[in-house]
Amino acid sequence: MSAIDPxxxxxxxxxxxxxxxxxxxxxxxxxxxxxALAGLALATHGYGKIMDPFGNIGMVESLGxxxxxxxxPLLAATEFFGGLFLAAGFLTRPAALATTIVLLVTVWxxxxxQGQGYPGAEKSILWAAICFFFVIHGARRFSIxxxxxxxx
Length: 152
Description:
The chain is mainly α and 152 residues long. The protein has six helices and no strands. The protein has helices at 19-51, 57-62, 68-88, 92-113, 117-137, 144-148. The chain starts with 18 loop residues before the first helix and ends with a helix.
C-alpha cells in the first residue's frame, strides 16, 4: 500500500508520475494565490462599505439585523478588514470564519429573501466555500501567520 500523498490523494497514482513533483511544488503557491485573490476581492467589495460604514443601516435592518447602527459597520469591517487579513494570511482562520458567515448570509439573502434561488446565490456559495477552506486549513505558506509562527 502506498503512502497518502496530500496532492495525489489516498495512495492514488498519477497517470504521468513525473507531474507529482510539479503538483507538490506548486501546491503551496496555488493556495496562497487563491487566498490572496479571495481576500482582495472581499476587501474590494467592502471598500465602499468601509468608506461609509453606516450606509447600509436600512438594508441590514430590513434583513432583521437590528440595530443597524451595529450591524452595518460590522458588515463593512468584516468584508474590508477580513478580506485584507485573509489576503495577507494574518489571523487567517478568524478572518475566514467571519467572512464565511457574512457570505452565508448573502446566500440566504439572494436565495430566499430575494427569491433568486441558486443562480442569484451562486457567487456567494463559491466565495463561502473558498473562505471555509481557509477556516479549516489556515494560511499555510506565504503568510504572516507562518512568518510569526502563530496561527489559530
